[in-house]
Specification:
Number of strands of chain B: 8
Mean pLDDT of chain A: 94
Distance between the termini of chain B: 7 Å
Oligomer: heterodimer
Low-confidence stretches of chain A: none
Mean pLDDT of chain B: 81
Radius of gyration of chain B: 21 Å
Number of helices of chain A: 0
Distance between the termini of chain A: 6 Å
Number of strands of chain A: 11
Shape of chain A: elongated
Strand content of chain B: 15-25%
Radius of gyration of chain A: 17 Å
Helix content of chain A: under 10%
Low-confidence stretches of chain B: 14-24, 170-193
Number of helices of chain B: 5
Order of helices and strands of chain B: HEEEHEHEHEEEH
Order of helices and strands of chain A: EEEEEEEEEEE
Largest sheet of chain B: 5 strands, mixed
Largest interface: A-B, 18 and 20 residues
């Protein structure tokens, strides 16, 4: 990647069948949203496009919930910092999510994402 | 006389059998681990404070939708059954009180809620701790675990189990007093034989 340039990175995540995670915009403020963050590094995250939420009704909720299921993509639009040092480095991100099935929920998890980058 | 003696002896045998079944089934239950946790007011809560009561011990969190469904049920159970020797205790797996306090107010929670710690989670969930919520334990008056539910359970099932446990000790007392009377009668009957 060239200094001052831009790039899009697509991260694909998959939830096991029968599970859902809250979307990045859950209706209930108590629910933990899907969230991707990037540490400062050679790349600067300009925008993150989250998967389109699905409105699903579960036995435990009176209203449909805003969720993601199955395989979904998160696309990050990066720019390369103008003062980025040339060479190889790793940009680190964190994906936080909270999954449930139709009877129970699991503790929120944060998964580290490592993106190898070479700046020319 | 002989016939009355047989009837009395069979009655006593049956009652003793019922008593032994009751006591053995209760004795087979695992002891619920004690804990020492702070409630929302900063007071320390131990499970042993509730010995003699039927307890619903609920591991939950504000971010758990199925848990939210149970909260109004537990609030109602607490209100309707507390005078019969019943209590609900909630143990929140939230990281801190900040989401819990407004939640308790929003849902009008009338039972004691504490923040969890790793030790308590391990003691109830094994080495991995409590992995899924709600995880709910029904604890009898002697402090033993009657049932463990992982995930949402129909309200009626909870209510039936609670009522069973509330009736358990009353039933045992009744059985005990009946046995006493029966034994007296049996003694008398035997004497007549």
């Amino acid at each position: 990647m060239k200094r001052g340039g831009t790039a899009e990175v697509k991260l694909t995540a998959t939830l096991n069948e029968g599970f859902h995670a809250n979307s990045h915009t859950p209706k209930d403020e108590n629910l933990i949203p899907l969230k991707l963050t990037w540490e400062p590094g050679a790349l600067v995250a300009k925008d993150i496009v989250y998967p389109k939420p699905q409105m699903e009704k579960y036995s435990f909720s009176e209203e449909p919930l805003s969720v993601v299921t199955g395989a979904f993509d998160l696309t990050t639009k990066f720019s390369v910092a103008p003062n980025a040092a040339p060479g190889a480095s790793v940009v680190t991100g964190k994906l936080r999510y909270q999954a449930c099935n139709d009877r129970a929920c699991f503790a929120p998890k944060t998964v580290e994402v490592r993106l190898p980058v070479t700046v020319q | 006389m002989l016939r009355f003696g047989w009837v009395a002896a069979v009655a006593v045998a049956l009652l003793l059998g019922i008593m032994m079944w009751r006591s053995s089934s209760a004795a087979a239950r695992d002891a619920a681990p004690d804990f020492s946790l702070k409630d929302v007011n900063g007071s320390t809560v131990h499970l042993h404070d509730y010995r003699g009561k039927v307890v619903v011990l609920d591991f939950w969190a504000t971010y758990c939708e199925p848990c939210q469904m149970e909260v109004p049920w537990f609030t109602q159970f607490e209100r309707e059954k507390r005078n019969r020797g019943f209590a609900v205790l909630g143990i929140s797996l939230d990281d801190d009180w900040s989401p819990v306090r407004p939640f308790l107010k929003q849902f009008g929670v009338n039972y004691r809620v504490m923040l969890s710690d790793r030790q308590t989670e391990k003691s109830y969930g094994g080495q991995e701790g409590i992995e899924a919520i709600p995880t709910t334990f029904l604890i009898d008056r002697a402090g033993h675990i009657y049932k463990r539910h992982v995930g949402l359970v129909p309200r009626k099932e909870f209510e039936n189990d609670i009522d069973t446990l509330l009736g358990d000790s009353a039933g045992a007392t009744r059985a005990s007093s009946i046995t006493g009377a029966g034994a007296t009668r049996a003694n008398t009957a035997t004497h007549h034989l």
